[in-house]
């Protein structure tokens, strides 16, 4: 499922970013797209309109700087060039509660940059836990990723996708059924790199 993009938004990645990009791409292709957890994810990936960046930030101030820079970079691109982005930050906010608190900072950054209504931030984390759910609730798997990741979504793309789908509530129900069938072990085995 490797994309053949007309323009490669990720060509300037640093060599040290490779393992983080590979794990995230594997998760995206095998879990998110492979299980159809997000029916809107396939097109930007296959069309080469998904930009992946790895933040080297070791604290939240540096991550905020990277987030602001990435939002501005994405906003400078047209929807035909780039539709969405993933900012992977493997070295900071490994604790889910700290990560969850940072989401308010991320939303404030969107607003401070004057990008409210243009961009929104969605969240993925290895220990993702929805409010009022148990840590081992299978529903949490839908937002679990290899590394803490901020998903930067173009609002117009989200609106267009939602209009095209008649029953968006069915996505959640279908995802829960899929994840229950798969189970936590099956989820991990699905996108983890096979040894050897």
Structure commentary:
This is DUF1415 domain-containing protein. It holds the Pfam family DUF1415. This protein has 196 residues and is of the alpha+beta class. It has one domain. 44% of the residues lie in helices and 11% in strands. The protein is built from six helices and four strands; from the N terminus they run H-H-E-H-E-H-E-E-H-H. It has a four-stranded mixed sheet, with helices on both faces. The N terminus is likely disordered.
Task: Describe the structure in brief.
This protein has 196 residues and is α+β, with helices and mostly antiparallel strands. It has helices spanning 18-33, 42-46, 60-75, 96-112, 155-164, 169-191; strands at residues 50-54, 84-88, 119-124, 149-154.
Primary descriptors:
6 helices; disordered N terminus; alpha+beta
User: What is the CA-CA span between the terminal residues?
Assistant: 21 Å
Indicate the proportion of strand residues. Answer: 5-15%
Number of domains: 1
Largest sheet: 4 strands, mixed
Helix-strand makeup class: alpha+beta
Strand order of the largest sheet: 1-2-4-3
Average pLDDT for all residues: 90
DSSP helix fraction: 40-55%
Architecture blueprint of SSEs:
Elements: H1 18-33, H2 42-46, E1 50-54, H3 60-75, E2 84-88, H4 96-112, E3 119-124, E4 149-154, H5 155-164, H6 169-191
Parallel strand pairs: 1-2
Antiparallel strand pairs: 2-4, 3-4
Helix pairs in contact: 3-4
